Fold this protein.
Amino acid sequence: MDPEVDLREVASATARFSEADLANLINEAALLAGRDHAHQISQYHFQDAFEKVVAGPERKSRRLSEAEKRRGAYHEVGHALIPAFTKHGDRVSKISIVPRGWPALGYTWQLSAEQQFLVTRAARRPCRPEAGFLGNHYGSRK
């Protein structure tokens, strides 16, 4: 493993993982490093492995039109803006409009700066469904 890997970041992202989930993450990161002909597993490999384990593999067969990409981008930005302006909002670590193994056409990853059990889910993610709706509404006006 690359000594530059931030294990605190990996631990924060995987706080609710089971042993099997962690084993899957490490195995996937090692596979990605092998595909890259890397001699060590890097932070990049852990980030890509996390995304694949949690959201599924990238669905390359699902092609999005420009209008779908635009609508998806506005939707995900809606999800990102609400926590940015709320007291207990989690920091956004990634926004993507790349379809993955699950039905969503994109996603907004948020990582809690605190341990997850210290702040209730409702306090951390207020108005979450409405945020995507507002993004959709604004995006459809463009």
Remarks:
- The first strand starts at residue 91 and ends at 96.
- The helical segments are 7-13, 19-35, 43-55, 66-84, 121-124, 128-140.
